[in-house]
Amino acid sequence: MSAIHPKITEVLTRTFKVPAAEIRPDSTMDSLEMDSLAVAEFAVLIRETLGGRGDFDRLPKGATLAEITRFIDGAGGGASASGAAPMSNAR
Asked: pTM of the entire structure?
């Protein structure tokens, strides 16, 4: 996986106390029990971690961590070519 995945793992484990064993490529924010507020905070923290690049408010809803990683990598820091809807975990 790309260099982005370890940064995602770091944010999830340090800030949100998600056990590292639960952070798999097929995990979704919902499966990690991240509510919509936590997902919004995650987007801000990832943007800051990556040096301010990217429009992470446009991450695809229900995406796996592998898909989120590809979205960030493929978009060159954020712009979605597919026009995907913003990620939300409203329960």
From this structure: 0.72
